[in-house]
Design brief:
The chain is an all-alpha fold and 319 residues long. Helices cover 76% and strands 0% of the residues. The protein is globular and about 65 Å long.
């Protein structure tokens, strides 16, 4: 129905050429923007309601468990929180103040911007369920393994002196008395998040539409081909200093993939933009010293590069 409406609007009412000019660009932009925003609002509403059932006190107990269990639960908690890298930092600070170990707190900080409901919706719409499922598993592994490595390095000495555990940093969560209140919470969260990211969605889809229709496939393949084996680390390193929402970067990543960029290279770039950024480093400086910021960025970057190579290796199976 949406596709027929877009066809009628662009090629009927606006009378644009479906084969050349602005016709395909505007069609791509309208169809994908409306589809994504509708899916986003619905999924965020559903996930928001489900999150009201999460027992925050138990989550804290799970995250402070020894071994990889605590890191995994922290990564899993990060996966159901709809935040970008900078928005995750206040919760990261709260974890530290609550006495949650540094490595486990990092597991949350790494995974939170990599996986969330609107990213999953975007990837399902663009890449399909197989790539999306592997991406979610990879994101959880990146958060769990990277946090475990950082935790075992005993880097607490790099926390700033005024950042001392108080045991009060983790919110115990709101108590919901009825299902209507849970629906109201999900609706409010869905409206709030959609309002914050709709601009990213439109920007990303717009850039994707232009790339999709105007950038020659041969040019993309030529650039990627010149990188050879190092295409993944180059793409990841280019993405690290940038800042953006996955809502905006996913459409760009999928178009780069469609234009010939290897799957792992495109996803590696997307993950680097989402999980690491210069504004994030500046905000982290409030709680941790520069050597730890550098180590955190380094470990996470290496994990993303390894994941990118894995996706490239499995591309023939996934696509």
């Amino acid at each position: 129905m949406l596709l027929k409406f877009t066809d009628a609007l662009v090629y009927g009412i606006l009378r644009l050429d479906p084969e050349k000019g602005l016709g395909p660009v505007i069609h791509f932009f309208i169809y994908d923007s409306v589809k994504i925003l509708l899916l986003l609002f619905t999924m965020i509403l559903v996930i928001g309601v489900l999150r009201t059932y999460l027992p925050h006190a138990k989550i804290k107990k799970w995250m402070i468990r020894s071994g990889g269990v605590g890191h995994f639960f922290a990564a899993l908690f990060g996966a159901v929180t709809p935040f970008c890298s900078c928005s995750s930092i206040p919760i990261f600070f709260g974890f530290l103040e609550a006495g949650i170990p540094l490595g486990i707190s990092f597991s949350f900080l790494i995974t939170s911007p990599l996986i969330n409901e609107y990213l999953v919706v975007l990837m399902l719409g663009f890449f399909g369920w197989k790539i999306t499922a592997l991406y979610v598993v990879s994101g959880l592994l990146i958060g769990t393994v990277s946090g475990t490595i950082l935790g075992r390095m005993h880097l607490e000495r790099y926390l700033t002196s005024d950042f001392i555990s108080t045991g009060k940093g983790l919110d115990d969560g709101k108590v919901f008395g009825s299902f209507r209140e849970r629906i109201r919470f999900g609706w409010k969260e869905s409206r709030s998040i959609t309002r914050k990211i709709w601009g990213w969605v439109l920007t990303g889809v717009g850039i994707g539409a232009v790339i999709h229709n105007y950038v020659p496939q041969e040019a993309i393949q030529s650039v990627v081909g010149s990188m050879g084996f190092f295409s993944v680390p180059v793409a990841v390193i280019l993405g690290v200093p940038m800042y953006g929402s996955c809502a905006g970067i996913v459409p760009i990543a999928v178009v780069l993939f469609q234009k010939g960029m290897p799957l792992g290279t495109a996803l590696g770039f997307m993950m680097a933009v989402a999980a690491l950024s210069l504004p994030e480093a500046i905000m982290l400086r409030r709680a941790i010293k520069l050597p730890l910021i550098a180590i955190f960025f380094g470990v996470t970057t290496i994990a993303i590069i390894v994941t990118g190579y894995l996706f490239n290796f499995l591309q023939h199976v996934l696509v």
